Amino acid sequence: MSVMRLESYAAGAWVAPSGDLKPLRSAVTGDVVAELGSQKLDFARMTDHARQVGGPALRAMTFHDRAFAIKALAQYLNDRRDALYELSYETGATKPDSMIDIDGGIGTLFVYSSKARRELPDDHVYVDGALEQLSRSGNFVGQHVATPLQGVAVHINAFNFPVWGMLEKLAPTLIAGVPAIVKPASSTAWLAEACFRMIVESGLFPEGAVQFIAGSTGDLLDRLTGQDVVSFTGSASTASMLRANPKIIGNSVRFVAEQDSLNASVLGPDAAPGTPEFDAFIKEVHREMTAKAGQKCTAVRRIFVPDAHRDAVTEALVARLEKTVVGNPRSEGVRMGALANLAQRDDVLEKAAVLGTEARRVFGDPDAFSVTDADAAAGAFVPPMLFSCDDPDGAQKLHSVEAFGPVSTIMPYRDLGHALKLANRGEGSLVASVFTHDPAVARQAVLEAGAFHGRLYFANRDTGKEATGHGSPLPHMVHGGPGRAGGGEELGGVRGVMHYMQRTAIQASPDLIAGITNRYVAGASTEEIEPHPFRLTFGELEPGRTLWAGPREVTLADIEHFAEFTGDTFYAHMDEEAAAANPFFPGRVAHGYLILSFAAGMFVEPAPGPVLANYGLDNLRFMKPVSPGDTLKVRLTVKQKTRRKDEYGEVRWDVGVYNQDGEQVAAYELLTMNAM
């Protein structure tokens, strides 16, 4: 493998390293893999390029345009994974470890693209929440919206996931419409740079959308404004140093921090040896100790078990650890590779020694362990180390010092409340897991420990193989945690996109709100013209296009026929005396679904045409009873359009049903798929 000279990508051009070159070494052999330069980048030019070129180009695209580009990028990277796997081995990662990083990152792109196309509009403005009525007449209303920040996102990533860490930040940032400058950790930067080159080579995003720093950030943070965002993953000490930058404080720069934490796993009091929960717990803790050689911000550091099961847990974990082969990640049979570098190895050994002052080591001697197909001294190898603590209440360092490697400590507890108090002593974590089949145990865990953990993962016999695991952040769910864990959030679907957007409260007339959001709102002007809106294609329909249909009288015979036909003979429809005794009804009334059926009968245009399917309705409300003899009319208004495929799109219709006095009796939103 030839030595790579890592380049930065600034203002649309690759910049070669210069000055004193820093060698980056293989975690497995110690050989030089890459060189990192100390070139001085023009950060003023980079930030200007992002704000003036990349930002406007991204904002000219809709949310869906950007989401489709993210999907195409995922497909592009997916076809080139093998090259990334080869480079990943030199970080000390096994093939399964590399798949967590590389496949996990690509999978995150796919999920974000899909969620954005389902949950965000094919537009430039995101509508956040429902319309707020601010006046009695309805002529003055409020709406929260979100638009992209007009700055740049600075992504500072950690060494342990050079691909996933980069892609999980880029996905929501680019979908939001904000350009990014990526700064990977130096020790594994060759893998991040290789993936970033693929992003640039794909040509899927406009010029200025992404830039890359191989080396120091220099005075970059000094150039940030209130329109910019810093998203950081790494140590608490580095985060504190970056947060203290006067420009970040003075300009109220958004700072999203995801820090390492002392995550915990609790074996529930009901999960005795022999139960599926016990077996799943042992398997999961072992996996969390050894995957990525324990270099995961979500790895289990503290293991809480009922005192009565402490020996059984220790024996079961030691048995698994004894079968864990450590060595060259390219070699067959190796299950755990090396730490990222020698400095990381030294730090883990130092921290493990500190933990050893409050707990005894029951497995893993760093001075006497075997390594397969590698030199233990030349590579950054350590054995998995399991400790056991007799007095978790009296311990201090076990709840405050993290050895960022394959190191974990077993601690006994008296009862569940005791276990949760011990878990909370980590002062904020990214995740805690509880293995239980008892809903009461799960509820107590949420009530007593939820405030201290960004995610609570519950596993039992029911979740089985479909469960993703304690240490797997998912793009659908928030990743982050309070206190020691950084107090920030990443991922979480659209929640992650919102970190790069500004929520703005809009107060205006319904017509202006409709014009701003490009969707119909109650009280806005409508237009009723020929032809029937069901005869118009997706492209021909516009929000506000309306059809009034009816009238249709509701008779007692209709109600009785509907009851007999459907089997719905609820007393309010069939028994005059009982219905009149009900405080909601004047007597016998029409079924709600009869009203919906009559509404459809009034507005549907039966001929084949642009409407391909009716696939549901949302927000159904019955607002006033309909009595025999009432006459109904229906209003059908285009509320919103969302492109789904090249061939068709979703049309959301606002439907109102009214009686002969103009009183609204039902409201809902109809969803159809319409041909383009």
* Strand portion: 15-25%
Question: If you average the pLDDT, what whole number results?
Answer: 93
- Rg result: 30 Å
For the biggest β-sheet, the strand order reads: 15-16-17-14-13-18-19
Distance between the termini: 52 Å
Apparent shape = globular
| CATH class designation of the largest domain | Alpha Beta
Annotated CATH homologous superfamily of the largest domain: Aldehyde Dehydrogenase, Chain A, domain 1
The total strand number stands at: 27
Profile the largest sheet. 7 strands, mixed
Number of domains: 3
Helical percentage: 25-40%
The CATH level-2 architecture of the largest domain is identified as 3-Layer(aba) Sandwich
CATH topology of the largest domain: Aldehyde Dehydrogenase, Chain A, domain 1
So how many helices?
19
Q: Enumerate the spans where pLDDT stays under 50 for 5 or more consecutive residues.
A: none
Structural class: alpha/beta
What does this structure look like?
The protein starts with a strand and ends with a strand. Helices cover 32% and strands 24% of the residues. Helix 12 (416-424) packs parallel to helix 13 (439-449). It folds into three domains: 4-125 and 147-259, Aldehyde Dehydrogenase, Chain A, domain 1; 269-477, 3-Layer(aba) Sandwich (Aldehyde Dehydrogenase, Chain A, domain 2); 526-675, Thiol Ester Dehydrase, Chain A. The chain is globular. The protein is built from 19 helices and 27 strands. The protein has 676 residues and is of the alpha/beta class. The strands form seven sheets. A seven-stranded mixed β-sheet has the order 15-16-17-14-13-18-19, with helices on both faces. Strands 10-9-8-11-12 form a five-stranded parallel β-sheet, with helices on both faces. Residues 546-651 form the MaoC-like domain. It holds the Pfam family Aldedh. Residues 15-503 form the Aldehyde dehydrogenase domain.
